Amino acid sequence: MKQLFEVVLGSGPTLFQWSPTGHYLAVSGTSLRVQILDRHGTVHDEISLGGKEWVSQTAVTNFAWDPKGETLAVLHRSQINKFESSANTADAAMVYRPRQKECVWLDFGGQRHEFTHCVWDGGGRVLALGTGKGNVLSYDAKSTKITSVLGKHTKAIRCGAWTTDGRLVLGGDDNCVTVSSASGDTELQLEIKREARELRFAPEPDRTGSGIGINGSRVTNQTQRVNQFSVDVGGSSLLVYRLGDGDSKVGKYETEQTQAVSGLRLSGKHHPPDELTFPQKYGKLNSHVWLAHTLLLIGFDSGYLLLMSTESAEELREEKFAVKAFEAVQVNQNLVGKPGLHLSWCSETNRVAASVGAVMKLFELTRDLRLVELKELSTHFDKNVTLCGVQWSMAGRVVTVGANDGVARTFLAALPALASGMATQVAYLSSLMELSVLDLGSNLVTAVPLQAEPSFLALGETHVACGMNNQAWFYDLSVVSDETQAPRLVNQREYLGVVTAVAMGAVYAIALSEGRAFIHAVDPNDDPDETREFSLPERGEEQRQGYVTCVAATPQIAVYGTATGYVRLVSALDRVMVGELLHPDGGIANVFPNAHGTRVVCVDDENVVFLYDARDERVLDVPQHENNSSTSRGGETNQNQVVLWDAFDPDVFLVANGVTFSVYLYTPITIDGASVQCVGTHDISQTGSKPVSLINGVVYWQAPSGSIDFATLVTHDPVNSTDDFFVNGAGVTERFHCALKLGKLQPAWEVAVRAREPEMWEQLAHAAMSSLEIDFAIRVYRVVGDASMVLSLERLRNVEDVHELAANVLMLFEKPECYDMAERLFIKSNKPNEALQMRVDLKHWDAAAALARKYDAKKLDEIKREHASACETRGDVEMALTLFEESLTAADQSRGGITNAKAGVARCSFRIGDLETGLRIVGQLNDKNTYGECAFLCEQFGDANDAAALFEKAGLFENAVSIYLDAKQYDLAKPLLARIPTGSGSSSCRALRVSYANAMEFSGNFEEAANEYELARVWEHAVRIRLTLLKPCDTEKAFAICRQSRSQEAASVAAGYCRQVGDVDRAVEFLLLARKSDDAFALAGESGPSAMDKLCRLVSNDATATAREYRKLAAYFETSLSWRKAGDAHAQCGNNEHAVRCYLKETSDDSVGAAIALVGSLRDDGLTSVVVEFLSSATGASLSVGDPSNKNNTSSQHTAWLFKLYVALGDYDAASTTSALLARQEQEMGNYKVAHAALFESSRELLRDGKTETRLANGVQKQLNLLHSYVLVKSFVRQQDHEGCARLLHRVAKNITKFPAHVVPILTSTVVECTRGGMKRTAVHFAQKLMAPTLRAEIGDAYKRKVETIARKPDPNAEDTAEPVSACPFCDTSGGAYDLTCNTCQADVPMCVASGRRVVAEEWAHCPSCAFPCNKAAFVKTVDAEGGECPLCRARVDASAVVA
Questions:
Q1: d(CA 16, CA 738)
Q2: Which pLDDT value is given to residue 1031?
Q3: What whole-number distance in Å separates Cα of residue 678 and Cα of residue 722?
Q4: Can the peptide bond before residue 1333 be classed as cis, meaning omega within 30 degrees of 0?
Q5: How far is it, in rounded angstroms, from Cα 550 to Cα 500?
Q6: 1155-1178: b (≥16 Cβ within 10 Å) or e
Q7: Where are the beta strands (DSSP E) in 223-340?
Q8: pLDDT, average across residues 525-541
Q9: 803-825 pLDDT per residue, tens
Q10: How far, in whole angstroms, is CA 1100 from its chain's centroid?
Q11: I need a surface site. Which of 100, 147, 548, 748 has the fewest CB within 10 A?
């Protein structure tokens, strides 16, 4: 702790006493003077004393301040010779008044007394002085009269105190405690076992009607004083006695022993004293102090501190808490005759100061009644120092200790709880004369030196204000003074009265002084003429509004509350009231606006918290959390409730009551209207903390030590935390629920996405809809997959009225309790018709009728009709009839409404059996639906004729025909059958036609019967009648029916007829159609080859032929040695092995190709080996494939078939290898066109199979490029492009070993074209190569001399022209135009089929015929030169169709 000041008065023990108000400190030591110091340690006055100075004793034996701190009584030694043996005895007394600096010595008329104790009464008027002989002298400070009362005690009075009702309780060395009235009469005398050392009164319980006991229990009905006191009985025990009220006319306690002890405790009457004894381990009692009216703290010479309760008789001996705070040796080192352990209690901070030996420790009393040592505040003095007293002052901010070294030291234990927050800045008192402004974002601290210790503090956006009494100082935080290097003082203002509170806006301040609010500019430069200053309430409003009790400020809005319950919002710059609320339940204690001043949380004088939304003129109660009993009406601990709005979340605020932070969420728009919900509570860890700022769930407060501490609220911690437990671990559910409680839908969405739990999505959707976040709810339902809900919400996106939107959302919840609320909201949004339609849709007929009568009477008849229809549907016919008839009586109905009502009456009449009325009414209508409905009802009641007539009118001809057929009225049924659509395929329609056809067949009308059977799709009867009953037979029509319907039954009838008449071909056809293949094959076999051929054609062309039929067909073809057809039949029936073998038995190309295609589709290893074996056999060598001129080249033929086999099997690498081998064989033999064509076809077939060019393995593409380069030379020669010829021949010559049949001609052409194309160095190279003995002789005579000349006489300066450059189409790196491999990305660049160059990205195109790559310009040029043919595939192409 920081030492504030010290007082040195001698070199021995010290005695001191703070005034109850904390304004003055009286100190005495061994020197003969008393110093009076102010709270800052400045000597206020010094009093000289007479007598002689003693080293071991203080000059003053007792200090006693009156309760008001205005008068000090002093006992000191003036005649020490007589009393030097007694350290606690004085012979002189004086009264000192510090304000007047007036000292009055008491005159006892020449009598000398041994004063041992003095104490003021509760009013500070009477001073009681106890003497060593047991007498009492009373001094009246007003009259200065001294009265002597003899015989109170027989020995010295050592302790005493006044009751709250003016009685004096004294204890002395005569083992007696007396209670005297104000007049001096003894009311009570208690005999105790030993001398009374210390007497203390317990604080009275709460007088407001209730109080807080220990463990949070509430003591009620305390309307009388308890006057409970305790006496230290010789250090061995503690006597506790409840004295009760002073109006009790009783004597000693023995007269009350007949009363119940428990009743006496609660009523406050006299009762037998309770004597507390303690275990031997605690030792002797040194000191004790009351912490509450039911809680004692006792200190022992063993170093123990003990908490005990006096709330009930059972708890009197119950220890609440015990701790050994000091070692016994420290206690015993104290002065002889003085208690070794000293205690002092501060109720404002719930702290205990204890001093023993050279140690002072501070303890904090927790809510669970434990003493926690504040080790950082403990103080250890020099080992030679012994402390002889400790006392709190200034509401626990300072503590003073006296020691035997003649020094009284005062320490700063806690700074005044002065702090203020604004957004992300906090201002707080860092020392008594310094203010600190902390930026919570950057942790930068700005120090502001002060002129005096402030009593109030306020922080604005750029200014801070503080002050005391009627003065205030305003500092500009953005401007630094050149002299002090601190924020500049911009205004020092004096008000007319004492200022109790100040609040800061952007450029103005509002001060509360003497019941009025004064608004003025912070910086006088902003208002030099003071024209913008004003006070509130306005003139003439004082009586109505009452005096101002609290003030608050936002950047633009000043807020104040009054004693009559007014909360007013005033624009500080315009002096215009922007909001006003009259709270009917009492005055306003405090107001807490949000940052914009649109919402204000108010606390009334009964500690009820409510929220006022000025924008909507709405007042909402702030609910009390179920675990927060301390915020109840009339409680003790919530007298200074503080509200903080979250700086980042405008809908969240907290209420702090000194015990807990209660977090609330204000939702202005929900389906239930605006609401304030308690999210949860957070226990305050440090008693006496003052909250100052709330930022995104992190609360900042000023600790009792004065520093700023912070913590994340438990309501926000799961949401704000980055801990993996909450992000991905088991805490995700808690994170989700916390986010929902705080209205944070996006964080809840992120949790739900990771968790993927259906319950989370359901809760998130409900929360979004409840808060009318329609777009967010749509997102959720899209993820869930609820399409109907998405569509329903999409229709609500453009609804602007909040009440209408909430009503529609409530309907989607589909809960009974939601519909009533939705109706009210529809009406509130001026949409009663929507409410009416909702009730109709829900079939809430009574509610719908009530709404119609009130809002739209024209719809009442329509509602009655719908109600009647519903009654009719559920069988309440009589009610339905009544409602239909009532709806007909309404005026101004539409024609459709009248028709519907009459139809309802008709139906209901039929249902109750009144057919006559029903027929009469339905006859008045011209409605097919009504005719049909009534027809069914007529039929139900047995009126067939009327039913048929109504069915006919309704267009239900099938029903009418059914009735006519049952009645055998065929003449009436026939025309109606004709009106039934021919394509009607319903079973009832077919049955009607069959029934009619049967009747016609029975009556002999065969043509009519056949037609009806055909319309009914009973094909066999239609065919039977046409072939057997009609005269003459209609065979063509019958056979056509069989072929079109493909009915097996009809075909069987036709086959039987054909066999009868000897028509074998048709009999076979219809037998197959009837799926009687055995009979068909047998009949065809009996009839000869022509019939069998007919059968084969029929089976082959029949898509519905069975495998059995194909097997029979295959057997027939094998017998006739038609192997290809046999293979096809085997393939159709799935007999693949036989099919392959049959294909291979026939040596035609088509047959072998069919075998390869079948094997390729099956991918069967066994069948593949059969084909490979066949191709490798001698039979395979005799196959004729490809060019007819190459029939003897069996190896090439074999390779070509293998290529096709590999392609069919999908083995493209093997196919590529085979194709390359085939082409190489032709190329080596000089058949370049054949090789070129083979490579081209192989490549195109592979590409046609869906494979890209990169899959052409084993150099097929490179080999094709090389051969095509050689082919292009002739085209370039015709185009006179000698450089192109030279480049292409250079490419071929570098691979001359692949052209063994024409080495010399190719090299010769290369030399010639290189010479012509400017590549002279290359020409020399290949000319010299031709000079080899094996090649020279083969050079043609026309070129021999020229080649020899070039080789033997080369030009030393010969160089090749530079190769054209083009960019790689893949990596865009430049390279040689004829280099088909990119040196940078190592990719194979496609070759242009028209120029032999690499393709470029800008010109890349494809041949319209073969789809091979080319450069557009070169392709068009070459195609024109080649007569419109592609230089690769030789197909005619349209050059204009080529697109790059």
A1: 55
A2: 80
A3: 25
A4: no
A5: 9
A6: bbebbbebebeebbebbeebbeee
A7: 228-233, 237-242, 274-277, 285-292, 295-300, 304-309, 319-324
A8: 88
A9: 888 888 888 888 888 888 888 88
A10: 69
A11: 100
- How far CA 862 is from CA of 634, 899, 948, 1407, in Å, comes to 59, 12, 32, 74
**How far is the CA of 518 from the CAs of 472, 571, 594, in angstroms?**
12, 13, 21
586: alpha, beta or left? (left if phi > 0; alpha if psi -120 to 50): left
* Residue 1110 burial by Cβ neighbours in a 10 Å radius (0-12, 13-18, 19+): buried
Contacting residues for 1096 by C-beta, under 8 A, at least 6 apart: 1113, 1116, 1117, 1125
Q: What is the CA radius of gyration of the chain?
A: 58
d(CA 751, CA 727): 8
Within 309-381, residue ranges assigned H as helices are 328-332
At 338 the pLDDT is 56
What does DSSP assign to residue 1025?
I
CB contact set of 1297 (below 8 Å; sequence gap of 6+): none
CA angle 974, 979, 981 (to 5 degrees): 120
Q: What gap in Å lies between CA 76 and CA 62, rounded to an integer?
A: 7
Report the amino acid identity of residue 1145.
Answer: K
In this predicted structure, the answer to whether residue 1347 has a pLDDT above a threshold of 80 is yes
Give me the residue label for tokens 């690498």: 1213
Question: How much is the average pLDDT of 844-863?
Answer: 84
Three-state SS for 1266? helix
Sign of CA dihedral 204, 210, 212, 217: positive
CA dihedral sign of residues 627, 632, 635, 641 = positive
Instruction: For residue range 993-1017, list pLDDT tens digits in order.
Output: 777 777 777 777 778 777 777 777 7
Per-residue model confidence (pLDDT) at position 694: 93
CA distances from 455 to 416, 486, 502, 709 (A): 8, 21, 11, 21
- Rounded CA gap, 1038 and 1066, in Å? 12
Residue given tokens 């911009």 in the structure block: 490
pLDDT-based confidence at residue 1249 (cuts at 50, 70, 90): low
CB burial string 177-194: b at 16+ within 10 A, e below: bbbbeeeeeebbebebee
Question: Checking phi first, is residue 281 left (phi over 0); if not, alpha (psi -120 to 50) or beta?
Answer: alpha
User: Residue 868 and residue 334: Cα distance in Å, rounded?
Assistant: 102
Q: 131 and 138 in contact (C-beta within 8 Å)?
A: no
Give, for 176, the enclosing helix (H) or strand (E): strand 176-180
Identity at 502, one-letter amino acid code: V
- The answer to whether the beta carbons of residues 190 and 176 sit under 8 Å apart is yes
Q: Is residue 171's pLDDT more than 70?
A: yes
187, 179 Cβ separation under 8 angstroms = yes
Structure tokens at 1305: 């001609």
Could you read off the pLDDT of 683-742 as tens digits, one per residue? 887 777 889 999 999 999 888 777 888 999 999 999 888 888 888 888 888 999 999 999
Q: Please state, in angstroms and rounded to a whole number, the distance separating the CA atoms of residues 1124 and 1147.
A: 10
> Does residue 591 contact residue 550 with C-beta atoms inside 8 Å?
yes
Residue % of the chain over a pLDDT of 70: 86
Q: Which residues of 711-734 are buried (b: 16+ CB within 10 A; e: fewer)?
A: ebbbbbbbbbbeeeebeeeebbeb
pLDDT per residue as tens digits for the range 96-130: 999 999 999 998 887 888 999 999 998 899 999 99
SS3 of residue 441 by DSSP: coil
Nearest to 1310 by CA among 1340, 1290, 1337: 1290
The helix/strand/coil state of 596 is coil
- State the Cα–Cα distance between residues 1050 and 1052, nearest whole angstrom: 5
